[in-house]
Amino acid sequence: MTVSRAIAQLAAEGLVVTRPGAGAFRAQPRTGTGPAPGDTSWQEVTLSADATTELVPRAVDASGVLATLAAPAPGVVEFNGGYLHHTLQPERAMAAALARAGRRPGAWGRPPTDGLPELREWFARGLGESSGAADVLITAGGQSALTTALRALAPPGAPVLVESPTYPGMLAIARAAGLRPVPVPVDAQGVRTDLLAAAFKATGARVFVCQPLFQNPTGAVLAPERRGEVLRIARESGAFVVEDDFARRLVHEDAGPLPGPLASDDHDGVVVHVSSLTKATSPSLRVGMLAARGPVLERLRAIHVVDTFFVPRPLQEAALELVGSPAWNRHLRAVAAELKARRDTMSAALSLCLPELALPHIPSGGYHLWLRLPDGTDEAALLSAALRAGVAIATGRPYFCAEPPAGHVRLSFAGVAGPAEIAEGVRRLRAACDEVLGRRAVSGDPAEQPHPPENRRS
Fold first, then answer.
1. pTM of the full predicted structure?
2. CA–CA separation, 77 vs 288, rounded Å?
């Protein structure tokens, strides 16, 4: 197998040619240096020509998304990842599911554009009695579902209300669609509903995007008394709520009973629900869903079909095999226990080694911690110092669509190998903080000193 892969790589690079039944042979050497590079400078004018005609420029900053997708250099502790470490992924169960799926009759044929009926029914069961398979569309992961939802619900130039802070990938989607993200602050109880009502009134927005369960990045869960308020405010404003339920399958072992999706409380078609299997399985199992009721579903369906035609049938069949196997619930239980252990390890290490970083909330779900930096900390300098120390982190600025109230850092504990690597990563981050905060302390500015100990933890 190793030799076959090496030969395939050499063939892709044009160094050898393969002849079935004969073997592999050295390719003829390439002659010349190839065509001269063209002049692409004209593109700068073309791509910026619409800046004066559009309400919102189409230039998109994808750095916040790329930070969670790029693989770190060898030896770097990955505290900025957005997916489970490969040791936490159900690789054997996924391989078996894919093998079984490939043998299903018609598995390589064209699927229904809305998705396999059985898979749509499985997703619908998580939304309560008011939803059925007819309300569900299968999408190529959660990012694709969010893209479809925002394109369907708001025209270019329109405002869209978002939690502040929020997921950078969603902000990138909104800006790519020409929308204007408007922040609504989040506290320990989720989105501030008093400010949500004011934002709807001030902007005339018709869409609000939220993560009611284990919000990214704060980890907050929308308080029970605010759930009904969000739906009422949106309904009175004639607006949709896009519910990104990305972390429901990343619950920690000590979380207790979870609240249902907002969609399960919605009787008027206010909620457009988004969910995915990707976060709880593998970055490459890009199977998600959109659920909605009423005329909006047809618009979602039309944009989904135009953008993607359909999700490949073998992938849908494999997802159906996986969630229907006994290994699925075993995997979810194992992830719940492991995420809790890693969360506890990281929070304890931070409390011991980095007490100046404030951790106001320890979540019971998700895969990261959200910390506030001492006032005046240069996020970019800390990011660079951390990389030099051998640890990759996510700074807070990309999570805000307007000016952030303070410096923050998000640390993921899901993409590392285990407790030992978490401890080592925190030790390296301590060295980076010593470099950046120590440099600040020399300036003698008392306003830039770390928070007092009594304010470090809730």
1. 0.83
2. 29
Helix axes 326-353, 91-102, angle to 10 degrees: 150
Query: Which tokens hold the place of 344?
Result: 């506890």
- Residue 63 pLDDT more than 50? yes
Task: Map tokens 């206010």 to a residue.
Answer: 270
The whole-angstrom distance between residue 190's C-alpha and the CA centroid of its chain comes to 18
Strand (E) or helix (H) holding 371: strand 368-372
Nearest to 305 by CA among 448, 76, 115, 51: 115
Q: How does DSSP assign 55-97, residue by residue?
A: SS------HHHHHHHSPPPTT-EESS--S--TTTS-HHHHHHH
The DSSP H or E segment spanning 183 is strand 180-187
Q: Write out the E strands in 201-306.
A: 207-210, 240-244, 271-276, 288-291
Beta-bridged to residue 183, according to DSSP, are 162
For 264-273, the pLDDT digits (tens) are: 999 888 999 9
Contacts of 325 (CB under 8 A, 6+ apart): 93, 96, 97
User: How do residues 115-131 score in pLDDT, each as one tens digit?
Assistant: 999 999 999 998 987 78
Q: Are 250 and 365 in contact (CB under 8 A)?
A: yes
Q: How far apart are CA 372 and CA 262, in angstroms?
A: 29
List, for residues 292-301, the tens digit of each pLDDT value: 998 999 999 9
Sign of the torsion angle spanned by Cα atoms 93, 98, 104, 106:
positive
Q: How far apart are CA 277 and CA 268, in angstroms?
A: 27
Q: What are phi and psi of 441, to 5 degrees?
A: -60, -30
Q: Which of 154, 108, 59 is nearest to 316 (CA)?
A: 108
| pLDDT tens-place string over residues 165-198 | 999 999 999 999 999 999 999 999 999 999 999 9
Give me the pLDDT at residue 286, please: 94
Which of 210-244 are b and which e, b meaning 16 or more Cβ less than 10 Å from the residue's Cβ? bbbbbbbbbbbbbbeebbebbbebbbebebbbbbb
